[in-house]
Write a structure and sequence with these properties.
Largest sheet: 5 strands, parallel
Distance between the termini: 69 Å
CATH topology of the largest domain: Rossmann fold
Domain Magnesium chelatase ChlI-like catalytic: 200-403
Number of strands: 20
Domain Mg chelatase-related protein C-terminal: 409-500
Organism: Campylobacter californiensis
Strand content: 15-25%
Shape: elongated
Protein name: YifB family Mg chelatase-like AAA ATPase
CATH architecture of the largest domain: 3-Layer(aba) Sandwich
CATH class of the largest domain: Alpha Beta
Low-confidence stretches: none
GO molecular function: ATP binding
Length: 503
């Protein structure tokens, strides 16, 4: 029995062993192992490609098994592995390399829509994997760190690759993405800093408190709500958040590109974290993922490690707003369908913008609000207490003034965030402050005696829930990190409390 390695994406990356046996019996060719329709069809493509090379099929029964056999599989990228196992019955060491590619009837090897995403997930799962891919994708695939890429154009070259070591050496592709050449080392791990500030906080005039809130939110990836009159800069601040977030690790960049590739979008590597802003008319399945039979990725998962922004928050359907509870609390989203069950990470910074009332003038000192008390009450009631409780920072924006000036740039804010990020990492913290578990909160969010007293008083006075207490501690931890303080102090707790939503 011979075998080759392949891979499939189903609730995460799965390594697939493509095995072959040649046994006595009536000549035949069968594929087993819960193979989908696209794989069953590969039998005809493989036959045609081998016949194009004048290959003589043995007078035996050929059985191809895709192991593990209890995992449903689909995709035409198994074609090349199946053809090679039939053509190379006597070649050794087939199992030391991953093989991917769809076969044309003339023996040409083609890429598939999801192949690049599989390679990205493979790079985060297997160390220094050797991979044989179609020539058309080899150049791009060679930019993925942790993979050794070889490219071939047709089945004849693929066969020669395993039979001729000199030819195999000529098939290697060595190319590195410029992004991965500019890394910084923090506590033994490599990170890619962002140097692009296309949207700059210097464009936001005034709003010093809003910028302070954005700075704190960026340090810990804290969820934030901007409330204010139309045109005061809510969306401007939210869209600039992504440029000042902490640097991404190599694995975060690869995972982001892989998720984008799953949605058949451009999967170029970028030092800027992802920014997703679905419209309030978007469907629930487009935001959280879904589909009739296959579980497709949604905006919440695509925003992982970046920013998910809901503009005009209260205009989103109630069902969508309430469905945010799971991804905001557990940092995961589970999608179950008949043929697939998938879990995606959702460790994003959630940002939302809303007006204080239907007409937007409630907080204005110059314009009159035209809304009745009932209209304002109904407008506010669209956001339930459980949703507001999951927000780390609730900010009321200042009114626009003719005296507003620019006072800080995104580069300056990014430098402050990077300094705080290094401070977090040097104390051995794996997650950013906004995503800390209960155990990590007890370990890293340590207060001095005065800060504890202030927090206890706030708990009694404002009837804070356990979740709200943890949110205050995590925000205070980020404020302390900006000041390089080992312990959370009184001023840090007071500032964190000042950003709590007022009922």
């Amino acid at each position: 029995m011979k075998s080759l390695k392949c891979a499939a994406y189903s609730d995460g990356l799965k390594i697939i062993e493509v095995e072959s046996t040649f046994s006595r019996g009536l000549p035949g060719f069968s594929i087993v192992g819960l193979a989908g329709a696209s794989i069953k069809e590969s039998a005809e493509r493989v036959k045609a490609a081998l016949l194009a090379l004048n290959f003589s099929f043995p007078a035996q029964k050929i059985t191809i098994n895709l192991s593990p056999s209890d995992l449903p599989k689909s995709g035409s990228h198994f074609d090349l592995a199946i053809a090679l196992l039939i053509a190379l019955q006597k070649s050794p060491n087939l199992d030391k390399i991953f093989v991917f590619g769809e076969l044309g009837l003339d023996g040409s090897i083609k890429s598939t829509a999801n192949l690049f995403s599989i390679l990205l997930f493979l790079s985060t799962s297997v160390s220094r994997a050797k991979v044989l891919v179609p020539h058309e994708i080899a150049q791009k695939a060679s930019m993925i760190p942790n993979l050794e890429i070889y490219g071939v154009s047709n089945l004849k070259e693929a066969i020669n690759f395993f039979q001729d070591d000199e030819f195999a050496s000529s098939c290697v592709f060595k190319n590195s993405h410029p992004l991965f050449q500019n890394v910084i080392d923090i506590n033994g791990e490599s990170y890619v800093p962002n140097q692009n500030f296309e949207l700059d906080f210097s464009d936001v005039l005034g709003q010093s408190r809003a910028k302070r809130a954005c700075l704190i939110a960026a340090v810990g990836m804290h969820n934030i709500i901007f409330e204010g009159s139309p045109g005061c800069g809510k969306s401007m601040c939210a869209k600039r958040l992504v440029y000042i977030l902490p640097p991404q690790s190599l694995s975060e960049i690869l995972n982001t590109a892989a998720y984008r590739s799953l949605s058949l979008q451009d999967s170029e590597f970028s030092a800027i974290r992802v920014f997703r802003a679905p419209h309030h008319t978007s469907t629930k399945s487009s935001i959280f993922g879904g589909g009739s039979s296959v579980a497709k990725i949604g905006e919440a998962a695509l925003a992982n490690a970046g920013v998910l922004f809901f503009d005009e928050f209260v205009h989103f359907p109630k069902q969508i707003i309430e469905s945010l509870r799971e991804p905001l609390e557990d940092h995961k989203i589970h999608i179950s369908r008949v043929n697939s069950k998938i879990t995606y990470d959702t460790k994003f910074l959630f940002a939302a913008a809303l007006n204080p009332c239907p007409c937007g003038n409630l907080l204005s000192q110059e314009l009159n609000c035209r809304c009745s008390e009932n209209e304002i009450k109904n407008y506010k009631s669209r956001l339930s207490e459980p949703i507001l409780d999951r927000m780390d920072l609730y900010l009321q924006m200042e009114e626009v003034s003719k005296d507003d000036r620019s006072d800080i740039t995104s580069k300056q804010m990014s430098d402050l965030v990077l300094k705080a990020f290094k401070f977090q990492k040097m104390r051995g913290q794996a997650e950013l402050n906004g995503k800390l578990s209960d155990a990590d909160i007890a370990k890293f969010c340590l207060c001095d005696d005065v800060a504890k007293e202030i927090l206890n008083t706030a708990v009694s006075r404002y009837h804070l829930s356990q979740r709200a207490i943890k949110k205050v501690l995590k925000v205070a931890r980020s404020i302390a990190d900006l000041e390089q303080s080992k312990l959370i102090q009184k001023a840090h707790i007071l500032e964190a409390l000042s950003f709590r939503a007022r009922s």
